[in-house]
Amino acid sequence: MVATTVHLMRHGEVHNPEGVLYGRLPGYRLSERGQEMARAVAEHFADPARPHDVVAVIASPLQRAQETAAPIAAAFGLEVGTDPRLIEAGNHFEGMTFGVGDGSLRHPQHWPYLRNPFRPSWGEAYKDQAARMMAAVASAREVGRGHEVVLVSHQLPVWVTRLSAEQRRLWHDPRKRQCSLASLTSLTFDDDRLVGIGYAEPAAHLLPGASTVAGA
Predict the structure, then answer these.
(1) Could you tell me if 44 and 206 are in contact, meaning their C-beta atoms sit under 8 angstroms apart?
(2) Long-range contact list for 141-145, CB < 8 A, 24+ apart?
(3) What own/partner pairs with CB < 8 Å and gap ≥ 24 does 42-46 have?
(4) What is the torsional sign of CA 170, 132, 77, 25?
(5) Binning pLDDT at 50, 70 and 90, where does residue 100 land?
(6) pTM for this entry
(7) What is the C-alpha to C-alpha distance for residues 87 and 68, in angstroms, rounded to an integer?
(8) Which secondary structure element, helix H or strand E, spans residue 141, and what is its range?
(9) With DSSP H G I counted as helix, E B as strand and the rest as coil, what are the percentages for the chain, rounded to 5?
(10) Which domains does the chain have, with CATH numbers?
């Protein structure tokens, strides 16, 4: 059997002083802390005491994911690849603040988008996110067969991929996602059979005080 590991990484902290749900909007870069997170994960992968065999680093086309991927790719002498299937989930509330006080939820015209949390009705269906992410994982397995590949994506697509891989229901409480900033959800395969799912937070020391407002 050939062992292959695909690491699904959530990007680092984003510079977002207005606290909007940035979604797929262009121009949202990593904060200084987010850049530190990316470097911390690169050091984790390049640690000679626990060697990793990364042969490809592929990211969502969004700026924050590309910037997160860059130091990891550099640590292995690789270029950052791009896969649009790794992009953030589509969301009706993109570009808005999301809350009851002075946010978009105080406006009745938005309420119909909350009618079905199981799909969800406010954005891209969970099953569609899982399908495109699983397709990206399958492609990564072929690229890195017998080695390791890092895919840099976003919180919700990574989380629903894990739920799908574990054959759990896709609708969930967002507060209970195990997918912190710059975390790694690792899928290990023997040939094409999934044999293990791991989770790690190489940048855990940078999480206290980090902004997760509209984090994704």
Answers:
(1) no
(2) 141/4, 141/6, 141/189, 141/192, 143/55, 143/56, 143/58, 144/4, 144/6, 144/55, 144/56, 145/2, 145/4
(3) 42/71, 42/72, 42/74, 42/75, 43/75, 43/202, 44/200, 44/202, 45/72, 45/75, 45/76, 45/150, 46/75, 46/76
(4) negative
(5) very low
(6) 0.90
(7) 14
(8) helix 126-143
(9) 35, 20, 45
(10) 3-95+124-206 (3.40.50.1240)
The model's pLDDT over 190-212, given as tens digits with 9 standing for 90+, comes to 999 999 999 999 999 999 989 87
- Which residue type sits at 204? A
Which token pair is 9? 């990484």
pLDDT tens, position by position, 148-186: 999 999 999 999 999 999 999 999 888 899 999 999 999
- CA 176 to CA 157: how far, in whole Å? 15
